[in-house]
Amino acid sequence: MELNSASGRVRREKSLDVLVVGAHEHSLYSMQRHTELLTAAYVASGLSVSLVRPSTVLYGRLGRSKWAAYGDKFIIFPLRLIVKARRAKIIHVADHSDAILGLFLGKSKWIVSCHDLNAIMAASNEF
User: Fold this and answer.
1) What is the block-wise mean pLDDT of the chain (127 residues), using blocks of 10 residues?
2) Contacts of 28 (CB under 8 A, 6+ apart)
C-alpha cells in the first residue's frame, strides 16, 4: 500500500501476475541472461511482471567477495522480497541456487528454474 500525501488516502498497489526473482547483479552472465529471457517471455505472454534481484549494498563496500554478495542476498534482500512478493500471484525464482529464498515467501505460490539443465538438454539435442 502507498500513502498519497496530497489526499491522505491509502492507495493499494496494483497486483502482479508474476514476480521474477533474479540472481545478484554480479552473478554470472548466463544467470543474468536467463533471468532477462524468462522475464521477457512472461511479458510477451501478456502477464504483468516485475523483476527483483539483490542489489549491491554490501558487495563493493565490504570488498568484492562472495561473502559480501551473500550478505546482500540473505540479510538485506529478503525484506524487499517479502514486500514485493505480497503483490504477486506467483513468484518465479529464476535460478535454483536461490531456491533458499523460498523460506521468506511464506505461503505464496512459487516455482524455481534450473537453468543449467536447459544448457545440458540443448547440448544433448533434447529440445
Assistant:
1) 44 76 76 88 94 83 76 88 93 88 89 76 73
2) none
